Amino acid sequence: MEPTTGRDVAGYIDHTLLRPDASRDEILKLCGEAIDHGFKAVCVNPIWVATAKRALAGSGVLTCSVAGFPLGASTTAAKAFEAAEAVANGADEVDMVIDIAAARRGDRAALERDIAGVVSPVHAGGAILKVIIETSLLNEHAKVLACEAAAAAGADFVKTSTGFAGGGATVTDVALMRLTVGPKMGVKASGGVRTLADALALIKAGATRLGASSGVAIVGGEQGAPGY
Predict the structure, then answer these.
(1) Residue 34 per-residue DSSP state
(2) Are the CB atoms for 139 and 167 separated by under 8 Å?
(3) Entry pTM
(4) Which residues are catalytic?
(5) Do you know which CDD domains this protein is assigned to (predicted)?
(6) Which of 4, 51, 170, 180 could form a Cys-Cys staple with 147, CB 3.0–4.6 A?
(7) What is the pLDDT of residues 77-126, one digit of tens each?
C-alpha cells in the first residue's frame, strides 16, 4: 500500500545534515528528531558517524554516511577507505558518489570497477551501499548506464543526487531508475525533497528511500527550507 500521510512517509526518510559547518549540537538535534519522528536513518558526514551512532543507540534508526562526497572524483581506493572507516565507526549504510566523468563518457567498465571497489568493504562490514549517480549532470543514456553498472557491481541502492550539484530528484528520473534496476533494488530520491507532496510523488514513481534535510517539515505537511 502506498503511503498517504506524513506518518506513512517517515519510515522512508534519511534525515540528512551534510553541511560542512554542521556542529555537534546540530548533529545531536538531527538524531533526536529522527528518533522522535521514526525516520529510517540519519545521514551525516564521516566525522560525525560515531557521534550519531551513540546518539541513536537502541532507537532502531540507522546511521548513514558518505564516501567520495560530493564530487565522486576521488580514486576508488580513497572511496573504499573512507567507506570502510565509516562502517568501522558505526555506519549501517554508506552513500557513495560515482565517477561522474566515466558515466558521461559511457565507460561502464570503469563505473563497475569503481562501485565494486566500494561494495566490497561495505558489505564485508555488514553495511549496505547506495550509489549516487548525480542525475542533474547526466543525460538519459548515462543515467541508465550508471544504474546498470551499480546493479552489476552488487550495490544495494541507486540514488539520484548529492544536493550539491544543482538540480535534484525528479519523478521522471526516479521512474527511469526504477525501470532500469527492476523491482528489487532500492532507489533513493534525494535533492530538493521539501514537501509531503514531493515525497509522495517520488514514492509513487518508485523511490523506496528519500534523502531530505526537511524531514520534520515533510512529515508535518509543511514546506521545508533548502539545505543538505
Answers:
(1) H
(2) no
(3) 0.95
(4) 95, 159, 188
(5) DeoC
(6) 180
(7) 999 999 999 999 999 999 999 999 999 999 999 999 999 999 999 999 99
Provide the 10 A C-beta neighbour count for residue 211: 31
Record the cell numbers describing residue 43, joined without a space. Answer: 545521514
DSSP notation for 40-70: SEEEE-GGGHHHHHHHHTTS--EEEEEESTT
Alpha carbon distances (Å) from 214 to 16, 66, 114, 168: 8, 18, 31, 14
Every domain of the chain and the residues it spans: 6-219
Task: Kindly report, residue by residue over 129-149, the tens digit of the pLDDT.
Answer: 999 999 999 999 999 999 999
Residue 216 is placed in which grid cell?
Answer: 520534520
Q: Got the DSSP string for 152-198?
A: HHT-SEEE---SSSS----HHHHHHHHHHH-SSSEEEEESS--SHHH
Superfamily of domain 6-219: Aldolase class I (3.20.20.70)
